[in-house]
Design a protein that fits this description.
2 copies of one chain form a homodimer. The radius of gyration of chain A is 26 Å and the shape is elongated. In chain A, the strands form 2 sheets. A 6-stranded parallel beta sheet of chain A has the order 2-1-3-4-5-11, with helices on both faces. Chain A has 13 helices and 12 strands. Chain A is α/β, with parallel strands linked by helices. The interface between A and B is large, with 49 and 48 residues. The structure holds a DNA duplex (30 and 30 nucleotides).
DNA sequence: ATCCTTTGCTTAAACGATTAAGCTGACTAT
DNA sequence: ATAGTCAGCTTAATCGTTTAAGCAAAGGAT
């Protein structure tokens, strides 16, 4: 019933040769290893007959390579990361690698844990969407000479390979788009975070306002804590709208922020785009479903994912050279939520 | 620089003992193996000093266990599965397991591929959301005595462990809810599929209509191909609405169908729920964002995921006993999209 | 003094594969 | 005849752990 899996030894026994020969043949090294052609044929036949499947674990132990990539993301249940994960999975498979995904929840401790678990599991390398305060972990990987590629977020102070969206430019484009379309009191809701990508998004927003001749209003920029999105998003929106100079447009720095914010706008019966125009980062079916399709900054997810994998695979094969640092542009997908402003109200 | 990882041998050398002793101590078997308490302390100290991290691959080879679970789903970028994946990941971790996720795209060949790859990687067991035409694969796993638990979908003709939503009852509840709220011409859009869970959803819908005294109209049930959702969903909706007896309510048998359908309803300027009431399977933020929040059948994702993991872990630890077959109820979350029907139009 | 137990350690095989090195016999060249 | 070459195989070490079996010395009982 439970027929034991067949190993090299079984084949060797059946063929009346040593395991070495079998290994040579099945790895296509008959030429270099001077294996007789008759016995090679016989071995191959037996392997098929016994339905031989090499034991990956044994291979890994011997070779020191597991053909496995660790993918660290914030949360697999967030559509942005789920999409990334899917691309990475497919691309890795195409290169003969398997992916192990771990969710860090934007939390440095969990991220460290994950890294350790996966290092012990001997993954060959990592693709990492870094969490807050994880610079030291990245530094450590560098020192340990563990191959990795940072995805979507990077640390300007640490020399690493990375593949990222140009967050500054994306935010700049988003804000600029709103200005062009006639909006003048443009708010932004972002995370309270020291992460470079978030800083860049904020900087892009601010620079666009400045270049558009709009004075930067400190009160128009709201930073809320990742851990309290729901409550703080409401407070932020209230503060942005329940004032004598309410915003007429709002940029969400993140998909998660947008979801929460849009739901609350609904609750408050604020109309998009008449009361508030919207531009958001991230992308998801949800934006298509909103009564007024949401303008968003479409990050090149496919390219990001594919490039990070091929970069990592290259690092794993060839010896490390110069770090590759790739910045990609997000595409502004303009929809009704940011359409040119109608008649000035008053 | 690239300090080699420390192994048992290194510790043994440093402590002047054999690797066996080190292994005993670090695995907490000092008692059974009569290790001296002094040397035990010394070994532990050295292990910490050298930052010893056991090599999981070697452990796996020796033990035949990789502490890894294979999770086969349709598509990680689908929110339903992404959520499942997250739960499974967390629950597995809590039990000392790592998860490898594979997306089958509802395709039997890909599913078979995935299974083989993961079997070669020596995963200890599987959690599987079965794809169309994959009954034979499940049968094979059974014969090979590879532990697995089916998740959310199962085959009534094959005796296996499974954890699933009661799809029949969920659909019945959904349709019944619409009837109760005054709708009389209730359509359904489902997948053209032989999968049991889809058949059950359809059967639930039909039985509810029957029990509600509504004649089942063949034309009100549309089955569309998984591979052509976008086009066929439009056609289906047109056929359901552009007729002299148009539907007044619609059930989507799936999250993906709902997304496509709702977008098209928008396009057609059909109002929810005044023109068409909606009830959908699946759940996602998207449903909250719709101008009229969508009534949905909330599957107990957390419980499904957790239960499947603990079931599998139990199978892996203890010897196989009776197969566990668990059916859970979906909760109907009633929102505005299915609110009691207003004034009869004519 | 002798035997038995117990304690504290080592030895070595095993998991399944890879691969450098060595062995044997046949053939070639001189 | 004799050395050298080469084809065709085997041997055995190795990757890092685990663990059954065994060995040696010390202590206890008679």
């Amino acid at each position: 019933m439970s027929t034991k899996k067949t190993s090299l030894k079984d084949i060797a026994q059946e063929a009346g040769v040593s395991t070495a020969l079998v290994s040579y043949v099945l790895n296509g090294k008959e030429k270099e290893s001077r294996v007789g052609s008759e016995i090679a044929i016989k071995i191959r036949a037996i392997a098929i007959a016994l339905n031989y499947q090499p034991n990956h674990v044994a291979k890994s132990l011997r070779s020191g390579k597991t053909q496995t990539i660790g993918l660290i993301i914030a949360d697999i249940s967030n559509p942005f990361f789920a999409n990334i994960a899917r691309i990475v999975e497919d691309e890795a498979k195409r290169n003969g690698y398997t992916v192990i995904i771990g969710s860090s929840d934007e939390n440095a401790d969990k991220s460290r844990d994950l890294l350790n678990v996966l290092i012990n599991r001997q993954v060959d390398g990592f693709i990492i969407v870094s969490a807050e305060d994880s610079a030291e972990q990245v530094q450590l990987l560098k020192e340990k000479n563990i191959p990795f590629v940072l995805l979507d977020r990077y640390f300007p102070d640490i020399q690493t390979d990375f593949v990222s969206t140009d967050h500054y430019r994306a935010a700049y484009d988003g804000a600029n788009h709103l200005i062009t379309n006639g909006y003048r009191r443009i708010g932004m809701i972002a995370y309270k975070s020291a992460m470079f990508h978030m800083q860049e998004r904020i900087r892009g927003y601010q620079d666009a306002l400045k270049d558009g001749g709009l004075p930067f209003q400190k009160g128009y920029l709201k930073k809320i804590r990742f851990t309290h999105i729901e409550q703080e998003a409401k407070v932020a929106i209230d503060e942005l709208t329940k004032t004598d100079k309410p915003i007429d447009a709002l940029i969400f720095a993140t998909y998660g922020l947008a979801i929460n914010g849009l739901i609350y706008l609904n609750e408050r019966k604020l109309n998009v785009p008449d009361d508030v125009a919207i531009v958001s980062f991230g992308q998801a079916e949800a934006f298509d479903l909103y009564y007024c399709p949401i303008t968003y900054l479409k990050q090149p997810i496919d390219l990001l994912g594919q490039t990070s994998v091929s970069l990592l695979v290259k690092k794993l094969k060839e010896s490390p050279e110069e770090p590759a640092q790739i910045l990609m542009n997000a595409e502004l997908v303009a929809r009704n939520s940011s359409k040119p402003k109608c008649i000035p109200q008053h």
